[in-house]
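Attaching the record inline, Q. Sequence:
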Amino acid sequence: MTVWIALCDDETAELNKTEKILSDYEQKHADTDFMIERFESADELLYMVREREYSPDLIFMDIYMPGENHPSGMEAARQLRDMGSRAKLIFLTTSKEHALEAFDVEAFQYLCKPVQTDKLFSLLERFTKETEREQEKYILLRAEGTITRVSLNDIVYCEAQGKRQCIYMADGTQVIQNLTMAKIYEMCSPCPELVKVGVSYIIHLEHIVSLNAQEAQMDNGRKIYLPRGTYRLLREQYFDYYCGKE
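Structure, as predicted:
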């Protein structure tokens, strides 16, 4: 598995220490390949993400990076989330006082320096296992000559339109596929939240806002008028899903 990693710290010595631990981990795990980029300020990292479409999987971020008119690690993390970054964030810092703030930016972990090798190794094990599970919930779709990796969790629903299928995504885009509904449903099998409704729809239970015998209101603003005889089973699947979550 290839993992793109960003190291962001204003101290070269700290960058070296973290990179050395990552290198040691990589050598002990032949199936893991780390692609590491180093940044000595949050500005550098933000620029790469904003202007160069740099998209790391994992970011090690120092919180305290002094400098007038420069963002702290926490502020940089907020900006990254505002830009849509889904990278796992690991804060490395000398103080515990920002630990609660880390939850606001969905930090993966908050570690105090000096970082112990065994703790970081354990964290990397958890990261790789979670990443492998998440990658199982992606499919590749071809549209207009371009192949795109799509998260199954971002599919709101799929609708049959004649011989084509239209996939409605959470970001408002639509992807037309010249595949059968049966084939798309097979591709969606790693995500049990995507359920078949009659012969014309595949609906993601997570994206249902409200449901009655006539229609399902989706969180992208669209309504799905339910085919005759499908409401009872969909209602049971919907309740089972949310009861199971709790």
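The radius of gyration is 22 Å. Helices lie at 12-28, 42-51, 73-82, 99-104, 117-135, 181-187, 231-245.

More tomorrow.
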